[in-house]
Amino acid sequence: MVSSPTGNPVERFLNIFTEVKTGEAASALLLALNIFLILTAYYVLKPVREALILAGGGAEIKSYAAAGQALLLLAAVPLYGWLASRVPRRVLINGVTLFFAGCLLVFYGLAQLQVPLGVVFFLWVGIFNLMVPAQFWAFANDVYTPETGKRLFVIVAFGASCGAVAGSYLDSLLIGPLGVYQLMLLAAGILAVSLLLTNGVESRERTRGRDETADASTQRAEDEPLPEGNAFALVLRNRYLLLIALLMLVLNWVNTTGEYILGRTVVSAAEQAVATGTTSALTKEEFIGAFYADFFTVVNLAGLLLQLFVVSRVLKYLGVGVAITILPLIALGGYLIAAFYPVLTMVRWAKTAENATDYSLQNTVRQVLFLPTTREQKYKAKQAIDTFFVRAGDVLSAALVFTATTWLAFSTRDFALFNVGLVTLWVALAILIGRRYQRLTAPAPTD
Questions:
Q1: Which residues of 128-142 are buried (b: 16+ CB within 10 A; e: fewer)?
Q2: Which of 9, 52, 100, 258 has the most CB atoms around it within 10 Å of its CB?
Q3: Domain 229-447: what homologous superfamily?
């Protein structure tokens, strides 16, 4: 991967994983650490969310609250766009992040007063875990050009993968000695530290921009609010953005339904193992827990390895147009296998390949797609796509499961075949997006 022997030792080391040019390592590593902290904060809050919603309302209330998040986003996304049209970039990012950190302090205070928080906190986490990462990636897209971002997002996205692992590990260490509510304070502190990194990267890139160009137009743009405009209208008026939105909706619909297929298969296997006495003395619950512990470990490890050693090479040698089709093709093969060989081993490895690729290659490509868009589209339209359209996919999956199990008596094979149909649409959307991305990033014709 190394293209040149120049650069400091850190840059030469990072060249093992992707092409890093002189002077680029510091900001890329700071951005990676930034999203690492944001994802760590979210994964620290996940067990708090689960504990409060399940203890306070049960699994049924949790499912209803998940659908409610999509409705809240219909108001939250336009509100974010309204704010982005009135304050500069730095104020927007600082203000939104501090708002979410401040909410955690309020929740902690209410918990000390014995105020029930289950549903409200569940809804809040659902907004936070979509809007704050989307804002970060909008900022990263704003910092880099398409050429630079395609190379360096590999490093930045690795920080996100590590944050998910670190947050879960912190929970296992701290939830016992600290308790559930104290984790809210920990997450708030982590978010505050992440802001220091955001401001550090902005100051550094602003200085570099002044050193590299005499054109002050970019500097002025960063210091000015975005134009007036509704985020959803931006998506609906632009075919490229609309295609990305539809892809994210279908992707999440497929993935969430796939998780249901896996869960259904695991439960069936556990019941059969208990009935035949082949569980090595494990109960049904212990069998399922052991399966998922092993499954998540393999998926996370595979995702990290793909992010480090495969993603940058796919983007460099095959390009975005090919990279965006890899996950749907893997999913297509996986659900065909699940449809005709619905045994746990086959479903497990098909879902492992899908999830590991989603968390690595697909996540990086998803961010790269916004590099050739305008600043307004990066901050406003990306919020709509990465929040509402993603959550809409979850809602459609829940509606499918409810309808198919209540009235249609779908088998596991039927769910897998339904996903095959959705993935076919996903492949078509990916091809169209890849072609439009190539047109948007093609060099301007010269006379």
A1: bbbbbbbbbbbbbbb
A2: 258
A3: MFS general substrate transporter like domains (1.20.1250.20)
